[in-house]
Amino acid sequence: MNTDNGSYGGSYGGPYGGPSASSYTDTDTGSYVVDGIRHTTVGGIRTVLAPRSGPVTAGLLFRVGRADETLATSGITHLVEHLALHRHGLGDLHYNGATAAVYTHFHVSGTPADVVEYLNGVCAALRDLPMDRLETEKEILRTEAAGRSRGPGHGMPLWRYGARGHGLVSYAEAGLPRITAHAVREWARTRFTTENAVLWITSDTVPEGLDLTLPAGAWQELPEVTSALPVTPAYYPGEEGGAVLSSVLPRSTGAVLFAEVLGKELFRELRQKGGYSYTAGADYEPRDTDTATIVAYADALPQKRDAMVGAFIDVLAKLRAGRIEQADLDSVRASALARFDVPELAAQLLPGHAMNLLLRHRNLTRDQARAEIEAVTVEVLHGIAREVWANALMQVPGRGVDWAGLTEAPQQSAEVVAGQTYPCLADRAQRLIVSGEGVSLVSPDNQVTVRYADCVLMNSYPDGARYLVGHDGFSLTVEPTLYGITSAQLAPLDAAVPPAAVVTMPPRDPSRIPRPETAPAAARSSRPAPGARLTWLTVVLWVLGVPAVVAGLFTTLSTYLMFTDPELGVESGEDWLGVIILWLLAGVLLVPWGVLLRRRLKGRG
């Protein structure tokens, strides 16, 4: 359904799914029906029902996801999901679980008995998680992450939000090493609760035997929305595969239709006309209660990337200039309205309806949804196009796009802390600065600072290395072997980083610990460099050897003339024979040594 209706399809009803003009209420049970969707409760959990032919499908949603974590605890929600599903591993049910940015979803398809078995098992496991599986499931999560393919633009949340909240979906689950059994139980007890859940089932009744007993709790507020962008529209250099643009704007039916129009225009210009791309399109996805994200994308071969990026930006410029084809709007509007005619519509809308209940977003009635679709005009889309561009973040391959009015996102920290400086032993142009407020890593072309108060993760290794990430997403590594820094000199850092951000890491393989390629700086400054002594010796050898060779050649020529010129006399030539041999022998011995030492000096440089 092409209205703003949640992540899974259309959904209707009054605000938060309450009764509306097209509803009726069962006074005996307190349940009510809106456009074929029955609202009730099961074990205190808000529940929506709509019948559908074929297997029964059900989903249990919880308002908790990756954006609710911190970088130092990232992975804990996914870990709870895996532990809750462990006991179903050998069954024949068609089921799965998913952990997204702001929700966790357990879903199943089968007979009513299958649904009861699965959901009862999930809730029983959430009440008493199999903690003997904790370390095993951590390894499974790492394996899952290693095999997961990342699509284009996967790093975009990090660039927009930083290393917290919605930005965490760009990161690996870095908190797994520090997550304890107690932390997992507490997370499940406070987030996977009755009041924080919504159940949906494609059935007109609740299956018998359903037991969804869960701890009591409260609905979890959505995570704070953060920003790592000083200004928009902005861009950053990204993967070479293509271009991606995202923008955040209020949830609306007009924005849904705009995403469809944008996708059509990109496909037409970049694939059908320009021939630059194989894939070109746009999607709309609700982010939270009030806002959504539009993502546009296109791929290209290396030789066509610049042309593709130019055409991509031209499409957006055309739409925000108001040059929107009425035929495109009519086409996407007709497709949206046609979806009201599908069989068993209420059941198809059920997952999105449940998601809106979970996020506390309004649910439209069928008539309201039709009216909103009909009300969208070219002028409405024009306004949305301008809003999309104003808040845009674009990933571009290759060269920048400042020419289009986008500002490059920060590539380095704006400040450097004042403190003790430690030059890099392998590259003295690079230096580490440690102070009581933060740490900076500075090189001729870059600078990164992480202030302790803003540190969201510090990996601490037994060999003394520290890896720090600031909430803006900038990170640096302190390697004691490269900077000659001791544990005592790192004490201000260890004392000031918030304990909640520290993740103690296992020992590293010795081959992964970097070593400087040159001698320590103190040793070089306290005694003459070996290269200096070799330089003087080379000069001496060349001064003696080269003249010896020249003199030997000159004497050889003179002797030759003596032997061949009768007036000079043979006796004189014979007297010079010993001198010739001595000069040549000195040259042959001294010059090669000079060449050898010169090559040795070049190897050190």
The major beta sheet can be summarized as:
8 strands, mixed
Through-space gap between termini: 68 Å
Beta-strand share of residues = 15-25%
Strand count? 22
What is the C-alpha radius of gyration, as a whole number of Å?
36 Å
- Globally, the shape reads flat
Q: Portion of residues in helices?
A: 25-40%
Please tell me the overall pLDDT: 85
The SS-based structural class is alpha+beta
Question: Helical segment tally?
Answer: 17
| Unreliably modeled segments | 6-23, 518-584, 590-605
Give, in spatial order, the strands making up the sheet with the most strands: 1-2-3-4-8-5-7-6
Concise summary:
With 605 residues, the protein is α+β, with helices and mostly antiparallel strands.
